[in-house]
Amino acid sequence: MSIETVVLAVGTEDEERTERLAREAVSVAEPADAEVVLTHVFDDAEFKRVRAKLGVNEDSEGSTPDAVAERHTTTRALAKALSEAGVRYSVRGAVGDLAAEVTETAGRVGADRVVVGGRQRSPTGKAVFGSVAQDILLSAPCPVTFVRQTAA
């Protein structure tokens, strides 16, 4: 199976994983000359906070989730790494549930792979707190690569 499109899920907690996420996305996309769709999903409060921090008026053109995602530090760091590796990419922003938005985007763009970061949890931790990565693994319309956060 040829890989043409890779969705790279980006969320609030991924600032600490940008280098590893970028490396994994490049390793999947580069050999196939695939496009990486950086999909940054904000919850409502975070979106408002980031938009305010960027000085973006909610009525301006720059207040869309796509525009805010393009200017977010984590997305810019990932975009820079992909660009330096010669990997084509685009940025999509969304506000809502991370797992749902990522799986919906993967379906809409016809993704061949989703790359998602996360941290290792005990079985009890997963049951009590849930796991966005686990939801994506179970719901994505294509294979998912999980990039685990390294221990500090």
From TrEMBL:
Gene3D superfamilies, alphabetized: HUPs (3.40.50.620)
InterPro entries attached to this UniProt entry: Rossmann-like_a/b/a_fold, Universal_stress_UspA, UspA
Domain of life, per lineage: Archaea
Residue runs in coiled coils: none
Residue intervals of the UspA domain: 10-148
Pfam families (UniProt xref): Usp
PANTHER family according to UniProt: STRESS RESPONSE PROTEIN NHAX, UNIVERSAL STRESS PROTEIN UP12
Protein family: Belongs to the universal stress protein A family.
Protein name per its UniProtKB record: Universal stress protein
Organism: Halorubrum laminariae
Organism placement in taxonomy: Archaea, Methanobacteriati, Methanobacteriota, Stenosarchaea group, Halobacteria
